[in-house]
Amino acid sequence: xxxVTAESTRAGERILAGLDLWAEWPxxxxxxxxxxxxxxxxxxxxxxTSLKHIAQGxxxxxxxxxxxxxxxxxxxFALSRRGHTIAxxxxxxxxxxxxxxxxxxxxxxxxxxxxxxxxxxxxVVQYEQGALTAAHAEVVAELRRDTERVxxxxxxxxxxxxxxxxxxxxxxxxAVLSLGIDVxxxxxxxxxxxxxxxxxxxxxxxxxxxxxxx
Length: 214
Known about the structure:
Shape: elongated
GO molecular function: DNA-binding transcription factor activity; transcription cis-regulatory region binding
Number of strands: 0
Structural class: mainly alpha
Keywords: DNA-binding
Low-confidence stretches: none
CATH superfamily: Tetracycline Repressor, domain 2
Order of helices and strands: HHHHHHHHHH
CATH topology: Tetracycline Repressor, domain 2
DNA-binding region: 50-69
CATH class: Mainly Alpha
Domain HTH tetR-type: 27-87
Strand content: under 5%
Number of helices: 10
Number of domains: 1
Oligomer: single chain
Distance between the termini: 6 Å
Protein name: TetR family transcriptional regulator
Mean pLDDT: 94
């Protein structure tokens, strides 16, 4: 069934509750540095951000930053890797549901909500990738490929089970992921949509796009 159920939203909420963006940085100092870098990258862009901006935002000296991170590119990489790891953990958690239709509803609902609720992080990790070194960019690219493989595998499973009618699985995979990712670009808190409402809407849209019964 393509209808989004209360069970789907509860499952999505459980997945989201288990994701901790900041788990990789256990100390208050590390979190202050990464948080300041995130805010500056979002406000000024990577190239417009200096280590001085990050130091000021974190309340530390520029020299103190080097104890934890060698460069602002390393900070961007840490954020990008963590953000993409979270996305991969999310889709994997949703895809374990045996029923492919239910799994897809949970996946799209939670993926969309995460990109709305963590829009600042999502914007930075999606739109500043060009500033990463080639080696770091490849690490992030592999995480993206892993995420795509999980979603594509779920769609393949749904097609095989007769739950989805999809003429182009690769294209459908890109479309499902793009629905959630693009939310980070335009979502504004206090606007006409809440993260929950968007998650419900997009889960329903994805169901229709994949040919799930109403």
